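User: Can you help me understand a structure? I only have the sequence.
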Amino acid sequence: MLTTDTMVQCHPPLELEELPKEDEERLEKLFSKLDNDGNGKIDIHDLSVALKELAPHINRSYAEKFIAKSGWKEAGDVTLSEFIHYVREHEKNLRLQFSHLDKNKDGKVDLEELISAFADLGIAIGRNEATNLLKRMDQDGSLNISYDEWRDYLLLAPATDIHALIHFWRHSTYLDIGEDMNVPDDFTQSELQTGKWWRHLLAGGIAGAVSRTCTAPLDRLKVFLQVNPTRENMAKCLAKMISEGGVTGLWRGNGINVIKIAPESALKFAAYEQVKRLIKGEKKNHPLAIHERFVAGATAGAISQTVIYPLEVLKTRLALRKTGQYSGILDAAKKIYAREGLKCFYKGYIPNILGIVPYAGIDLAVYETLKKKYISKYQAHNGQPGMLLLLACGSASCTLGQVCSYPLALVRTRLQAQEKAAKGAEGTMRGVFRDIVQREGLVGLYRGITPNFIKVIPAVSISYVVYEYASRSLGVNMT
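Assistant: Let's start by predicting it. Here is the structure, written out as tokens:
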């Protein structure tokens, strides 16, 4: 129990004497869990270790946020008295928040009240998502939330704002692996009105630029293997690339790959929002179902790809260029146009558009499925997905999307690489498909996919980390 020495530190004894015995015991028990080394004080290390055990998704940065929000010094050394003082003040805010949710004042929040509360905050949340959120807080299986459940769920959160409860799921899915077929992110009405959406897009663009630059050698290796009909392995192909252009030559084509992120993201976002409005019609607050998100995402992807596709062709040509062939992006565009005309900038357009459907559909479906599986499995522990789980979900969904759409991507690259007008069927999607199968077999349709697989995990990891730090710097924390 509380000692006299503990009580006189920082806060008057009267405050602790007024604390009900059951609350005192509850907070002492929680404090002991947080006090990892048992010295009667909590420091940043204790908090990080203990919070990690309480909830798998929590990391050191979460502990730092908790301490900053609590008003404690970062060095820690928080006593039991200080901890109880903070918790009591924190619980006052939690009770106020809960009273806003509890519309009928019956001491419980049910599903309809939860959906209504989100609507009041300008957040369109579907019944399934609200149900999953409710279940994560619902400890006794009553399908409603009591104040104690609400308090226990948020007691160790660095923020009490209800937006934080679903913010993680809404803005932690920008995982850039160098492909431009992912379904755009969803934003709330308040984020659209306050302009936070462009900060998320900017953070995603920065993450994509860093990720693509770091994995550019693997991307160029993939392109070389795709257009090379001989059965050279990756080591020989990589050696040829280095001997012809040096180590720096491994980044050929990366400049245009980074430049096209901005117009691609902007066009896709604008198109996605317009298509969503058309699908919703008069039901403006109606959240999109997964199949509606797929339709909106695939349509937005097709529109944006149509506009920026010439940059895709330029990227392939620059990746395959020989030393001294072009002095830069503009020089390459001028020479290619003079030699082949405007039509060449849309070579491979049809398989590229067709590839959006399986990639976006499978990527979205797998990610959403894995996310829901996690929620249903760990909702009893009030857990949120940690970085490793998020990376695993993102990597799995991206990889499966690639497997199904890769043959179309291969044919697209072969057509993009054709510098001369092919005769007859050789210049068509069907002709290239038939030629690959006849010469290389069905396995040939997946030529170059190995470096693509290799780059998924580092690309997703880099993108995740950079996105989190970039969004934090821009004031739109993803977690």
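Now, to help you interpret it: The longest strand covers residues 108-109. The chain is about 65% helix and 0% strand. Let me know which part you'd like to focus on.
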